[in-house]
From TrEMBL:
Protein name: nicotinamidase
UniProt xrefs under InterPro entries: Isochorismatase-like_dom (IPR000868), Isochorismatase-like_sf (IPR036380), Isochorismatase_Nicotinamidase (IPR052347)
Upper lineage: Bacteria, Pseudomonadati, Pseudomonadota, Gammaproteobacteria, Alteromonadales
Pfam families linked: Isochorismatase (PF00857)
Family: Belongs to the isochorismatase family.
Gene3D superfamilies, per database record: Isochorismatase-like
Length: 208
């Protein structure tokens, strides 16, 4: 069984929300996410769901990415992906949340800012349930895409690989915060055995 995973493909990470965490081209990946989902038996997604009063929130972009001494929030970020705001919503062209087979909300706790969708904490201790759900559905292969490649997508893919799934990363279905971060993420994922593919068409041929 194959699952397709839309990781944090939300408007908060696109130019549609320029005052949050806009990633260049983040609003252009829906077609590739839909194409990879067409190759899968199940479609799952994750969404950041952050509090406006989260302990890691700062009031200006220049204050971001500063280290924090919290167990489950390692860096500062501006407010983003708050439920009820435009940034919380999925990017245009994706299914409604209720149409997914499994949906993860992460980062709800004010003192927690996880990147991966498989655990609520940075130590990979408190499961979101998605790994267990995939195992129960007898999924052995997961195709991953979403936002942003160098943070939440990378971490989710690594968590899935660590859990024993065969993981494919669809590069055309991702965008990164920085080119340097993207390259480092790709190196880390390849070292963990994750298979990087150019797009869903190539992936289709690989999957046969």
């Amino acid at each position: 069984m194959i699952a397709s995973f839309d990781v944090d493909a939300q408007r908060t990470f696109t130019p549609l929300c320029p005052n949050e965490l806009p990633v260049s081209g983040g609003d252009e990946i829906a077609a590739e996410l839909n194409a990879q989902a067409a190759l899968a038996d199940f479609r799952i997604a994750s969404k950041d769901a952050h509090s406006a009063t989260a302990k890691w929130v700062v009031d200006a972009p220049e204050k971001m990415l500063q280290p924090l001494d919290y167990a489950d929030a390692d860096l500062t970020w501006v407010r983003h992906a708050e439920p009820g705001t435009e940034g919380f919503e999925l990017i245009p062209g994706l299914p409604a949340p209720a149409e997914y087979d499994f949906l993860v909300y992460k980062g709800v706790e004010a003192a927690m800012h996880p990147y991966g969708a498989c655990y609520h904490d940075l130590a990979n201790r408190i499961s979101t349930g998605v790994i267990e759900w995939l195992q129960q559905k007898e999924v052995n292969t997961v195709i991953v895409g979403g936002l942003a490649l160098d943070f939440c997508v990378k971490t989710t893919a690594l968590q899935l690989a660590e859990a024993g799934f065969r993981v494919y990363l669809n590069l055309a279905a991702c965008r990164a915060i920085s080119e340097e971060g993207a390259q480092q993420a790709c190196n880390e994922m390849q070292a963990a055995g994750i298979i990087l593919t150019q797009d869903a068409a190539v992936l289709s041929a690989m999957l046969g």
